[in-house]
């Protein structure tokens, strides 16, 4: 019965990405978004509520927010601290929070109908977990997430290590995409940001409708410049909360990739004029020394209409302005993170013995109602689960057979180590991730230990692909949930 409820919960919300949602509520009473706060302390308060987001001089959209901003308030805590988040829902519909990439206990994972009941309008829920692993993470709605994340319901979670190398500036930059001409009619001439970017189940998604790219909820000249001083060490935490991959170019400076998905890179070497590709759900931390005074750009490269808006100025304080003339159309190499950094002994290897081995052939097929996305030829809930017991060592092979589609595969509750790419062992730093971007024709082998009991989702973080079938579970056979979903509660819609 529990598995049936799990299946219904997952499908209900993934399918929400494929259907028209209800009309927006009146926006006249909604407040304007404010700048994102930084929250810390023994008890943190988050409120989900509606607001208006001014993306640039011409575009304002109705949004869902945490504490009135997009991105939502940044939660910033120290490693080892007990995190207590008192969450109140002031939205007109149920919602919940998932801590993306963070290995919380299963009952804090925030999947309605699977780990908890959805938080209804006017209600509160308290999340608690210990911040054991430092790094850059994010949080977002896990209730009808194809709609609610698309409306701006996400924020950032930074866990500072006990002994952190000193940096002079620490900026968090969240990437996203919006529509200025969605299929839904506009209100008072303002664009509306809807869940229709993906379609699915007979409606092929048209990503060209996403013509506004944003950094921290702003686009183009509306993005606040990053201030630096000469010789400062600057850290940029880059998080992709959208549904497209973005290739970013840091102009005028060498930089190092110091972490991916919050996990450190061993001996990162300086690189310059190479593009950093960030897939949906991924995070990259980069650092550079501000040793080239002037005004420079961190910008997105590509041919999409919104590309030109995803750029932020880096301004040296008290320095004569230098105008950056480089073009976002120039051809530059893309960093291969599997060859970056230096090797060192790691937890897993290709030739050790594993308790569980699972091959995940990622494919595209025609279903009864249109294109579906498959794992081993099946769509969820018919995909075979990854069955484990606590303590098992697990090896998973991904093979992307889709001719055109990229699949950023995300595992809840665990990190995995990337062992090989296209049949060859990786040659760079040990690579620990929770979201792995797999291009057409690519093959990866990853490994993890089943060290966090529960039943965890393992799915493509392009929610169009998930809604059309690309979902499975890591199921602990020796685990029994203490949460029983209410079969009569239709508000629990899971992912």
How would you describe what is shown here?
GO terms for molecular function: copper ion binding; oxidoreductase activity. Pfam families: Cu-oxidase_2, Cu-oxidase_3. This is FtsP/CotA-like multicopper oxidase with cupredoxin domain. This protein is mainly β. Mean pLDDT is about 90; it is low at about 15-30 and about 185-205. The protein is globular and about 65 Å long. The chain has helices at about 1-15, 145-150, 465; strands at about 30, 40, 45-55, 60-65, 75-80, 80-90, 95-100, 125-130, 135-140, 155-160, 170-180, 210-215, 225-230, 235-240, 245-250, 255-260, 265, 275-280, 285-290, 295-300, 310-315, 355-365, 370-375, 385-390, 395-400, 405-410, 415-420, 425, 430-435, 435-440, 445-450, 455-460, 470-475. The protein folds into three domains: about 1-165, Sandwich (Immunoglobulin-like), CATH 2.60.40.420; about 175-340, Immunoglobulin-like (Sandwich); about 355-475, Sandwich (Immunoglobulin-like), CATH 2.60.40.420. The chain starts with a helix and ends in a 19-residue tail after the last strand. Strands 22, 23, 25, 27, 28, 29 and 31 form a seven-stranded mixed β-sheet that branches. It has a six-stranded mixed β-sheet with strand order 12-11-14-19-16-17, with no helix packed on it. Strands 1, 3, 4, 6 and 8 form a five-stranded mixed β-sheet that branches. About 5% of the residues lie in helices and about 40% in strands. The chain contains three helices and 33 strands.
């Amino acid at each position: 019965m529990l598995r049936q409820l799990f299946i219904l919960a997952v499908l209900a919300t993934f399918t929400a990405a494929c259907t028209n949602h209800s009309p927006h509520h009146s926006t006249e009473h909604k407040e304007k978004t404010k700048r994102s706060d930084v929250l810390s302390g023994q008890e943190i308060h988050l409120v989900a509520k509606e607001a208006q987001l001014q993306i640039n001089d011409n575009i304002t959209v109705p949004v869902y927010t945490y504490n009135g901003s997009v991105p939502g308030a940044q939660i910033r805590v120290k490693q080892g601290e007990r995190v207590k988040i008192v969450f109140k829902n002031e939205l007109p519909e149920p919602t919940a929070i998932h801590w993306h990439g963070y290995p919380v206990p299963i009952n804090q994972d925030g999947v309605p109908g699977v780990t908890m009941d959805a938080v209804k309008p006017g209600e509160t829920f308290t999340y608690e977990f210990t911040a054991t692993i430092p790094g850059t993470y994010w949080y977002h709605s896990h209730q009808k997430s194809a709609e609610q994340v698309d409306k701006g319901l996400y924020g950032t979670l930074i866990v500072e290590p006990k002994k952190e190398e000193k940096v002079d500036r620490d900026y968090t930059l969240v990437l996203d995409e919006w529509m200025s001409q969605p299929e839904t009619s506009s209100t008072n001439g303002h664009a509306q940001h809807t869940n229709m970017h993906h379609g699915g189940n007979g409606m092929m998604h048209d990503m060209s409708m996403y013509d506004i790219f944003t950094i921290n909820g702003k686009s183009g000249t509306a993005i606040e410049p990053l201030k630096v001083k000469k010789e400062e060490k600057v850290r940029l935490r880059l998080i992709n909360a959208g549904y497209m991959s973005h290739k970013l170019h840091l102009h005028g400076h060498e930089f190092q990739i110091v972490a991916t998905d919050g996990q450190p890179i061993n001996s990162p070497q300086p690189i310059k004029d190479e593009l950093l590709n960030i897939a949906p759900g991924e995070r990259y931390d980069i650092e550079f020394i501000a040793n080239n005074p002037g005004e420079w750009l961190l910008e997105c490269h590509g041919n999409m209409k919104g590309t030109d808006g995803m750029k932020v100025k880096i301004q040296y304080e008290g320095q004569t302005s230098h105008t950056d003339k480089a073009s976002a159309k120039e051809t530059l190499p893309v960093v291969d993170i599997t060859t970056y950094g230096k090797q060192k002994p790691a937890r897993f290897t290709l030739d050790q013995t594993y308790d569980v081995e699972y091959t995940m052939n990622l494919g595209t097929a025609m279903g009864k109602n249109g294109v579906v996305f498959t794992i081993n030829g099946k769509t969820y809930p018919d995909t075979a689960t990854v069955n484990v017991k606590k303590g098992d060592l697990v090896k998973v092979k991904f093979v992307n057979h889709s001719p055109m589609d990229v699949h950023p595969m995300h595992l809840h509750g665990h990190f995995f180590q990337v062992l090989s790419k296209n049949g060859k062992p990786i040659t760079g730093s040990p690579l620990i991730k929770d979201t792995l971007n797999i291009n057409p024709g690519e093959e990866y082998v990853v490994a993890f230990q089943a060290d966090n009991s529960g039943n965890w989702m393992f799915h493509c973080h392009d929610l169009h692909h998930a809604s059309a079938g690309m979902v499975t579970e890591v199921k602990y056979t020796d685990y029994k949930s203490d949460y029983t979903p209410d079969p009569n509660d239709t508000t629990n819609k899971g992912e």
